[in-house]
Amino acid sequence: MNNFISVHDVTDINALVQKALAYKADPLKDKLLGANKRLGLLFLNPSLRTRLSTQVAAANLGMEAIVFNVDKEGWTLEFEEGAIMSGNTVEHIKDAAPILGSYFNVLCIRTFPSLKNREDDYSELFISQFIKYCGVPVISLESATLHPLQSLTDIITIQEVMAKEELKQKKAKPKIVLTWAPHVKPLPQCVANSFAQWINAWGEADFVITHPEDYELAEQFSKGATITHDQDEALKDADFVYVKNWSTYNDYGKIYENDPAWMLTEEKLKLTNQAKVMHCLPVRRNVELSDEVLDSASSVVTRQASNRVWAAQAVLSEILKAKQ
Ligand code: CP
User: Fold this and answer.
1) Of 9, 73, 181, 186, which is least packed with CB atoms within 10 Å of its CB?
2) Which residue in 120, 130, 253 sits closest to 185, CA to CA?
């Protein structure tokens, strides 16, 4: 593995999941793999889980991690080629990225979308320019359209639940439902896009996406899933329910609908096969997901978030081994 930007950087999803679970069983088994190596974590947007889990993962591999909050402490970066920098941007990525590449062996970057211009966001200009100019392996900590470390974690958690036989009914293929949820502000499509991309690529689930009308995700990610506007129908016999809000893709970055009836409740969960409930966090309680569900035995959100460490450790390990 050279970069980790999407599922396309992974040759064998199940092997990567097993690697992550092996680190969970024995976190320090490769404690010298990253010795004398430095990891740079650049944040253009806030984070709790991604930032800390990646730092812990690096420490488990003996690697030094340095965090730079670019949005608060750095110069405002320009990403457009040929830009006349007479506005607010101070430093071009063409100048900054090679310097960062000379300080670090591996770089990680979080760059959220603007949600203003779909073509710009979906071109993934920021992370592409960063990869083009930094000269070292790059790991996405969530980009304009995808969140691959989250999605790897999600599949790790699903496989862990299945391996421990925590589902009511053993099935060859679990039914996994990605359901839209209400929110108070427009959110990126990244987590939903990425989850859809990974579950479709994994190919070992009966995968359903449910959302209100006009909340279609980009087909490049959702194609392969069954898509329905009937949430109750989607939830029937589900083994996993992944709850997430996203803003509109077609008329980009809008909130069209915020019907609280889309919030997952204990009553709705009765339609499922005693499904495990997932969410990437942070979650707006009693807007996206009810207290009763989040605080019940159905919820695996804390385990899911703690598994972020093992996903990051498996990816860092792959990249370090490829460079040996
Ligand atoms: N799920 C997730 O990426 O969390 P943070 O935004 O806190 O990193």
Assistant:
1) 73
2) 253
Q: ipTM of the predicted structure?
A: 0.99
Q: Residue 66 belongs to what domain range?
A: 7-146+308-322
Query: Which of 108, 154, 281, 289 for mutating ligand 1's site (highest number of atoms within 8 Å of CB)?
Result: 281
Q: State how far the Cα of 93 lies from the Cα of 108, in Å rounded to an integer.
A: 14
**Rounded distance from Cα 164 to ligand 1 centre (Å):** 26
Q: Quick one: 113 and 225 in the same domain? A: no
Locate the ligand 1 atom nearest the alpha carbon of residue 45 and give its number: 6
- Can you give the pLDDT at residue 75? 96
Helix then strand then coil, % of the chain, to nearest 5: 40, 15, 45
Q: What is the CATH number of the domain that holds 87?
A: 3.40.50.1370
Is 134 labelled as part of a ligand binding site?
A: no
pTM for this prediction: 0.97
Q: Which phi and psi angles does 319 have, rounded to 5°?
A: -70, -40
pLDDT band at 101 (very low <50, low <70, confident <90, very high): very high
Helix (H, G, I), strand (E, B) or coil at 50: helix
295 plus 156 within the same structural domain: yes
- Residues 72, 205 within the same domain: no
> Does 284 carry a binding-site annotation?
yes
The verdict on residue 2 lying in a domain is: no
| Residue 65 in domain | yes
pLDDT tens for 107-149 read 999 999 999 999 999 999 999 999 999 999 999 999 999 999 9
Residue 66 is assigned to a structural domain of this protein: yes
How many C-beta atoms surround the C-beta of residue 59 within 10 A? 18
In a domain, 1, yes or no: no
Question: Is 48 annotated as belonging to a binding site?
Answer: yes
Question: What residue's CA is closest to ligand 1, atom 6?
Answer: 47
Supply the DSSP symbol for 75: P
Q: What is the Å distance from ligand 1's center to 205 Cα?
A: 25
Structural domain count of the chain: 2
SS3 state of residue 111? coil
- The protein residue whose alpha carbon is closest to atom 3 in ligand 1 is 50
